[in-house]
Amino acid sequence: MTFYPLDVVECVPETTDSASFIFEIPEELRATFDYKAGQFLNFRIPWKDFFIERCYSISSSPITDARLQVTIKRAANGRASNWFNDEVREGSQVMAATPSGRFVLKEQRNNGLIFFAGGSGITPILSLIQTALLTTDRPVQLIYANRDTDSIIFKQTLEGLATEHSNQLSCHHHLSCDHDLDSDGTHLNQQKIEDLVAQRWDADFYICGPSPFMETVEAVLADHKVDDERVFVERFVSSIDPDRAEVQASVEEEPDIGDVKLKITADGKDFDVEYL
Length: 276
Ligand SMILES: Cc1cc2nc3c(=O)[nH]c(=O)nc-3n(C[C@H](O)[C@H](O)[C@H](O)COP(=O)(O)OP(=O)(O)OC[C@H]3O[C@@H](n4cnc5c(N)ncnc54)[C@H](O)[C@@H]3O)c2cc1C
Prior knowledge:
Strand order of the largest sheet: 4-3-6-1-2-5
Bound molecules: flavin-adenine dinucleotide
CATH class of the domain at 4-96: Mainly Beta
Radius of gyration: 19 Å
CATH superfamily of the domain at 4-96: Translation factors
Number of strands: 13
Largest sheet: 6 strands, antiparallel
């Protein structure tokens, strides 16, 4: 994989534990870094005496934004996310590979779009929503789950979009720990999801957020027999670091684990593979 140096031209704090990093793509790399809404970049980050790699979704839109942006939320004791938030500043240079990923809009569809985002899972979804609003007439619904109001990334941007595109976009914030807004202090569950979807099971569904959140939404869609062709998922997992590979290997070598299926995620799709 080839990594290219990108200059950080701006860092924007989004919440207390997340920030956006904006890159000016040099003229000679513009075509190389052409991207579709919903895609991500893989970054190569110096760590101790080696390098680690992490993917970050592009939160800017290729339609509305001249510069390319990623938005990174700190993970507790996480390596790359804290490195970005602590070390990367305007004028820094980072190494990134070209955009990839299939968590993108399907062309030539005019059914509704329903986005389920949880926490930092909003990053590719903001890009998809902005792009869909400007390039299609498809009705767009966002269901965005967070702990509380302060942890909502892009709150104002979303409010602005909902006002500007009030005929096309509706945003529902679900807050698990805030009773002030539309929340009863619990996580999204089947009943709430069904109420929010309100029989629009013919939509295209995009899901990105913490694993339990994604599993809940996917299970409801499966219950309602939503065709796999209309369900798009992006799972935020870290690549395995060179010094952590041993931990991973020791799990795989465990002798008494019986029949095991591995779930592999590639380009936004899950594959179940027998582990022999
Ligand atoms: C396609 C894609 C797009 C993504 N987009 C975004 C995005 O837009 N924004 C965003 O914020 N994130 C995004 N992510 C997630 C991101 O890539 C990282 O996984 C995330 O930032 C955490 O990385 P980290 O290096 O900070 O944490 P890591 O160092 O990977 O650690 C994560 C957690 O696991 C623990 N841990 C993991 N392995 C071990 C081990 N062997 N021993 C001990 N502890 C361990 C750590 O302590 C920590 O709590 C995306 C992921 C993918 C795959």
